[in-house]
Specification:
Blueprint (H helix, E strand, L loop, with lengths): L3 E6 L6 H17 L5 E7 L5 E2 L5 E2 L3 E2 L8 E4 L11 H10 L5 E5 L2 H8 L6 E2 L6 H7 L4 E2 L5 E4 L2 E4 L4 H13 L2 H10 L10
Parallel strand pairs: 1-2, 1-6, 2-5, 6-7, 7-11, 8-9
Antiparallel strand pairs: 3-4, 10-11
Helix pairs in contact: 1-5, 1-6, 2-3, 5-6
Protein name: DJ-1/PfpI family protein
InterPro entries: Class_I_gatase-like (IPR029062), DJ-1/PfpI (IPR002818), INH-QAR (IPR052158)
Organism: Marinomonas aquiplantarum
Length: about 200
């Protein structure tokens, strides 16, 4: 089986656990599996070092112009106020959305998906602090409160920060098997919330 290629898009002032949590889930799943189910790529706008929250420096694997063909696109959150106003980034997200099998966001990453007009389902969630803003900006969305993650069709969105780990384990379950997701959670010593609420 060919590895599923997962692209995690991050940017300046991204929340550290929003990308490092899912990265840990998918790479741990690959490590504890007898096969190589996933390949994970950190992607930024230009491929240069990104300063995430609190000055956490990250060297992405590639840029939006030179990444491999993706099966999954996951957009992270953080201080997204500049990122949602970048036409080239929004255009790239819009171009990738119909190509990938699964679309996902952690925390406020859903704002980028909404602004790019690519949400496959109106049922979404985000960080509790941003629920009202998301609903006000995008009244057509069914913004769900008090859940760790939401899945509808081939789209997943998670609440804030650590909730992205629960959502990513759910993705491992969907993309490979529940047994691998459980094995990954155990390896990570993480108490996986299997149900969205």
């Amino acid at each position: 089986m060919k590895p599923i290629k997962i692209g995690i898009y991050l940017y300046e002032l991204a929340e550290v656990l929003d990308f490092s949590g899912p990265f840990e889930v998918f790479t741990t799943a690959a490590r504890v599996s007898e096969e190589t189910p996933f390949e994970v790529y950190l992607i930024s706008e230009d491929g240069q070092t990104v300063s995430a929250r609190a000055g956490y420096k990250v060297v992405p694997d590639c840029s939006i112009k030179d990444h491999p063909e993706l099966d999954v696109l996951l957009v992270v959150g953080g201080d997204h106020s500049q990122e949602v106003n970048k036409p080239n980034v929004l255009d790239w997200i819009a171009q990738q959305a119909p190509k990938v099998s699964w679309l996902a966001s952690v925390c406020t990453g859903v704002f980028l998906l909404a602004k790019a007009g690519v949400l496959r389902s109106n049922k979404v969630t985000t960080h509790w602090e941003d629920i009202a803003d998301l609903q006000q900006l995008y009244p057509q969305l069914d913004v769900v409160e008090g859940v760790r993650w939401v899945q509808q069709d081939q789209q997943l969105t998670s609440a804030g920060i650590s909730a992205g780990i629960d959502m990513s384990l759910q993705m491992v379950s969907l993309l490979h098997s529940e047994s691998l997701a459980e094995k990954t959670a155990r390896q990570m010593e993480f108490d996986w919330t299997k149900k969205p609420n």
